[in-house]
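User: I'm preparing a small set of examples for a lab meeting where we compare how different chains pack in three dimensions. I only have the primary sequence for this one, and I'd like the structure in token form so I can line it up with the others. Please keep the answer compact; I'll paste it straight into my notes.
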Amino acid sequence: MASMTLPAAAASEPMMELNTTPLIDIMLVLLVMFIITIPPQSHAVKLDLPSDRTEWQPDPLRNKVVVTEGGQYLFNGEPAGAPQLTTLFERMAQMPSAPELQLQPAPRAPYGAVDEVLVRAKRAELTRLGFVGNEAYRHF
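Assistant: Understood. Below is the structure token output for the 140-residue chain.
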């Protein structure tokens, strides 16, 4: 019986298959290590943002906070500082029927100033918060 040997030309050709299993294993280990080392979120303000509805009727008991591009606050059109906002928010929370707080940041308002209003509203336990002027950011 003749032994089965490969021709010399077939033995010298490079192998055309690559074993990708070890590469996939290494990528999965790196992915798991990356997920484990990501720090968890330590600061978050959870809000239910209003949807784009136009059938809502205006409420006569509203207070509006505008954050300007310079980071200043306007409460119902009047300039107010951060401590004054805290006092006003606490007074609003003590009312029998807490009015809605409307927040309208300018397009280039600093995020920190807007976040400060949200944090102060949350600390005062205001439950009715609305964002005004979202239409301007639809195609931002």
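A couple of notes for your slides: The radius of gyration is 30 Å. Confidence is low (pLDDT under 50) at residues 52-60.

User: Perfect, thanks.
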